[in-house]
Every structure is written in C-alpha cells, then in structure tokens.
Design a protein that fits this description.
It contains 18 helices and 29 strands. A hairpin with a 2-residue loop joins strand 12 and strand 13. Helix 8 runs parallel beside helix 9 and helix 16 crosses helix 18. It binds ligand 1PR. InterPro entries: Aldolase_TIM, Class_I_gatase-like, GATASE, His_biosynth, HisF, IGPS_HisA/HisF, Imidazole-glycPsynth_HisH, RibuloseP-bd_barrel.
Length: 562
C-alpha cells in the first residue's frame, strides 16, 4: 500500500489545555501536513496514527491535566507500543519518571528512566531562554541537524545517565551542565527545544520526523542504529546559549486610525517638538507591523516583541488590535513572539476580566510570551506592602501559574533621577540603588532609576532594581529593561542600570533602549550579564541590518545565531 500524502497523513495533537498549540498547528500547515486534529481522550489516543504532544508550562499542571482527562494509561500504552509520538518540551519531560517541578515530586509517564529537575547552575540565568546548539549522541540519520541552533525555554531538565543512555539522541550544554535535549527510540522522538519556534531548522526537524513515520519503508530516512559513547560530564565549559537580538515593534493607531509601528525619543512618539507646539504633531509612522515583523524574522531576529503602547487608555477588551496582528504573524513567522500592553485586571462595560483572561486571548492568537508593564510596578508595591507575602492575585502570578514563568516577561520603564551626595543618602535610605553614570552632557553623576507606569507618564515611589526583585519573586521569567532617558538616543544602553538589575536577579534580562549600532550590542554583552539586547529605531529607520549587528557580535566573540 502506498504511503499517504502529507496533506492526508492524520496527525493527532494532544491538547491538554495549556500552551501555545497554535504555533505548532501553523508550523504543520506551513509544511503541508494539514490533516491534523486536536485530541483530548483516551479513545482518540488509542485510535491515533501519529501523536504530537506540545507542551509549555509547568510539569505538575500538565500531569494533573492528563490525569483529569484520564489519558495517562492510554498514552503510556501508546508510547510503549512504539507508535509514532513526537513530544515537545513538556511532551519530552513527561516521558521521564518524575519531576521536582511542583509541590513535592510529580510522577511522569515513566517511559524513560530519570527525573526532571531544576537547573543547578549558579553562573547562568534560569529559565534558560534562547537559541542553543545540540550535540549528537547517536550515529545514523537523526531528525535533528547537528550544530544548528534551536530555540529553548525551560527551567527544568533531565540529565543523561547510564540508565537512559539508549534514549539520548542529543545533549545540550547550559550553565556548566550537559542535559538531554532530545530523545529517540524507534518511532518515538521528543525534544526539549521548540522546533515550531526554531525557524527553518525547526520546521525541517518536524518535517523529517513526519516524513519518516509517514513513509516508514522509505530509504531516504534510515533509522538511528549505533549509540555513541556518552561522557556523563559537561562536554564544554564554553557557553553555547546565544545572546539574543530582539526587535521591538511599538504599535499604536496613528491619527487616521491605522495600526502603525512608531518609535519615540525618550518615549515621545510625535514627530517633532516644534510641530507639537504648533499643535500639528503627528504620530511617527515607521511602517506596517506585519510587514516589518516578517522582514525582521527573515533577517535573523531571534525574537520579536509587539507592544501596544496606548493600551493604558483604550478599551482593552473591546479593542485588542494586536490579536489579529498576532494571528497573522504567527502563521508566517516561526520565531518567538512576545506581546505587551494592557495586561492587567480590567473593569470594562461593567464586567471584570482577570489579567490571565486578557493574556489567554494573546496566547490563543499565537503569542509565546506576554509582557507586563504598569501592572508589575503596582504588584511590586503591593508585595512590599504585604511584607513580601504573595496572594496569587497579581497578573504575574495569575499568568505564570497557568502558562509557566517562561511565558511572563516584565517590561520596566524607569527614568533616571540624578542626585548629589545628600540625595544619594536619601535615596539609599529609601532602598534605591544609586550608581555613577554618565549623563547626556557626558558628565559623571550619580542617579537611581525610578519606576514609571503608563509609558513613563507617571512615576511611582520604587526603583527599577526593587521592581525587578519583586517581579522575580512573583513569578516573572524574564525582564525587558528599558530606560526612558536612553530610548531613541542611539548612544548605547544604560550599562549601569543593566549591571544593577542583572546583579539583583537570577532570571534573564533583555537590555533595551539606546542602541545605535553593533558596537552597543557588543558593549552591553561584554560589560553586563544581560541575555538579550533589544532595539527598535535603528531597525525601523533602516540604519542597520540585524546581520550587521550579528557580524559585529561574532567578530567580538559574542555567541550568536547567524
Ligand atoms: O503598561 O502593561 O500596558 O504596557 C505598555 C507597554 O508599552 C510597556 O512595555 C511600555 O514599555 C510600552 N510603552 C508605552 N509607551 C511607550 C512609548 O514609547 N511611548 N514603548 C512604550 C516602550 C520601549 C522599547 C523601545 C526601546 C528601544 N518602548 O520597546 O522599543 O526603548 O528603542 P530604541 O532602540 O529606538 O532606543 P502596559
């Protein structure tokens, strides 16, 4: 009997109710594997010809969902019978015996020997977010192209041991540990990285696996046979996780009501100050968001962030302009997408919407992460007021509980407050971090960084470093660290701010505001511990290409994806 075509081969996507399944479905569609359906029951598992189990979020909630759907036994039987199974992230982790992610030890499917524990590193940020390489552990033809970069986002990992060796397909190094990044045995393949977010490399991994199980007798996809020897110590002390280049698209409606990418100087997005005085200032229009996003993804952006910068004033629920934009982009762009603006509890037209419901809309439209600005400052102040006792109510807690910490970015928009010796004493008494910086005139001065809300329109009595510490406690997985003074100036990032925050938290920090060229990316990566650097204006105005930034990084020995 001849094999089914790509468009008729039936694929069952296990939908346990969390995670961004849409990205995977979009990836399948782009590969012409269009005969997919979501499944949720044991009967559907038994009937399936090929299961994909995509998962982001927490191990414990994934296992609880599988148990409440009563599919655990059916899934175990399915995998043990060597039927086609492709697991992604949690879809790989749950194959192991257990995890420490949750209250106590959580039992997994127990197919592979070993536990899934938190990274023990003290030298690198956790979660590990970004592009990393894999090292082959088997000979033969693997669906994972060796040496290529894949997108990872996780805090927990399984280690290779003598008892799971036969499963280990690739390993990856992070923070001095070598962990399992993919497993394979017969028709079962699973990976820690996200192929649906790993650009063309990721799509080729999905395609090559599906082609193989669709045409099992094809000679073009031979099976892996021989197992290489596997050293159970770190293979490399050199960090292989790439420093990411992120592009931000500040989006708003212009005066004619069209959704445009705009960009300000120190957050002022109107044309010029002179025009403004004449009352004619227009919102700067730097292009159409979808077109630009696609151009940047094709041009090598490691991640794209969309920010609805006027969400503080609009009716957030009735007007979520980024939802359609995200849907459109996630069908065409296979790198991580973050969306921010207006994510908070909302009272609109007499109805209360929880922040997680607002976030749900974005995740369902294809976002991988959401970014929370103003509400994270409010939540930090509340946490301090309550003596650092969490109540589970903040937007950060709500969203990280459902989607995992890696899905929650906090965007901090601080302004410098310059102080003299006396002011320094006062600021430090208030708990603010004061550092020596160079001001816009090139003078050395002291300052602290005051947190703001509503895109810098209002300040709050808390500094950026304290906000960073509080949001980490509340369950944020990453910080996008802007600086209003540096925004749009092209003079480089606020290095002292980046140092102060990266020294205070263990989660990854994305440097933002002020990039004027490749030299500033190199500088911020060399001099601070940030995991990524973001720019907007230089890309939108076409002054520098992402490739040129990455060339500068490579020339300076900064690990990047090119
Ligand atoms: O507060 O949760 O509703 O989220 C609102 C979001 O919108 C926040 O993330 C906030 O940073 C953002 N935002 C609000 N107003 C502005 C504005 O510009 N008027 N944009 C704004 C912030 C900052 C960066 C910018 C970098 C790099 N934009 O995204 O792109 O500074 O710029 P550069 O490379 O040109 O220097 P909420």
């Amino acid at each position: 009997m001849s094999s089914p075509s790509r468009s008729t081969f039936p694929i069952s996507v296990l939908d346990y109710g969390a995670g961004n399944i849409l990205s995977l479905l979009n990836a399948l569609t782009s590969l012409s594997y269009t005969n997919f359906k979501k499944i949720t029951t044991a009967a559907e598992i038994r009937e399936a010809e090929c299961i994909i189990f995509p998962g982001v979020g927490a191990y414990s909630s994934a296992m609880e969902s599988l148990e409440s759907l009563e599919v655990v036994e059916a899934l175990k039987e399915y995998v043990k019978a060597d039927r086609p199974y492709f697991g992604i992230c949690l879809g790989m982790q749950t194959l192991f015996e257990s995890s420490e992610e949750g209250e106590g030890i959580v039992q997994g499917l127990g197919i592979i020997k070993g536990t899934v524990d938190k990274f023990k590193t003290t030298t690198a940020s956790v979660p590990s977010i970004g592009w990393n390489t894999t090292t082959d552990r088997k000979t033969g033809t693997s669906p994972v192209p060796s040496g290529s970069m894949k997108y990872f986002v996780h805090s927990y990992r399984a280690l290779p041991t003598s008892s799971n060796l036969s499963w280990v397909c690739t390993t990856t190094d992070y923070g001095g540990e070598t962990y399992i990044s993919s497993v394979e045995n017969g028709n079962v393949f699973a990976c820690q990285f996200h192929p649906e977010k790993s650009g063309t490399v990721g799509l080729s991994i999905i395609r090559s696996y599906l082609d193989r199980v669709r045409e099992p007798n094809s000679t073009s996809s031979p099976r892996i046979t021989t197992i290489k020897s596997l050293p159970l110590v770190p293979t490399s002390s050199v960090e292989t996780l790439c420093k990411r280049v992120v592009v931000a698209l500040d989006v708003r409606s212009n005066d004619s009501g069209d959704l445009v990418v705009t960009k300000g100087d120190q957050y002022d997005v109107r044309e010029t100050k002179d025009h403004k005085e004449e009352g004619k200032a227009k919102v700067r229009n730097l292009g159409k968001p979808a077109e630009l996003a696609r151009k940047y993804a094709e041009g090598g952006a490691d991640e794209i962030s969309f920010l609805n910068i006027t969400s503080f004033r609009s009716n957030v629920i009735s007007d979520l302009p980024l939802v359609d934009l995200l849907k459109f982009c996630s069908e065409r762009i296979f790198v991580p997408l973050t969306v921010g603006g207006g994510i908070r509890d909302i009272l609109e037209d007499g109805n209360v919407y929880k922040a997680v419901e607002v976030a749900d809309r974005y995740f369902r439209a294809g976002a991988d992460k959401v970014s929370i600005g103003s509400d994270s400052v409010t939540a930090s102040l509340k946490l301090i007021e309550k003596g650092y006792v969490k109540d589970g109510e903040s937007s950060i807690e709500q969203i990280s509980a459902r989607y995992g910490v890696q899905a929650v970015v906090v965007s901090i928009d601080p302004k410098r407050v310059y102080v003299d010796e006396e002011g320094k004493v006062e600021a430090e008494k208030a708990g603010y971090t004061v550092r020596d910086v160079v001001d816009v005139e090139g003078e050395r001065r002291m300052c602290w960084w005051q947190a703001t809300v509503k895109g810098g329109r209002e300040t709050r009595d808390i500094d950026a470093v304290k906000v960073a510490e509080c949001v980490e406690q509340l369950g944020a997985g990453e910080i996008m660290l802007n600086c209003i003074d540096m925004d749009g100036q092209g003079n480089g990032y606020d290095l002292e701010l980046m140092k102060a925050v990266t020294e205070a938290v263990g989660i990854p920090v994305i440097a933002s505001s002020g990039a004027g060229g490749g030299e500033h990316f190199v500088e911020v990566f060399r001099e601070t511990n940030v995991s990524a650097a973001l720019a907007a204006g230089i890309f939108h105005r076409g002054e520098v290409k992402i490739d040129e930034i990455k060339d500068a990084m490579l020339a300076a020995g900064v690990v990047t994806r090119k």
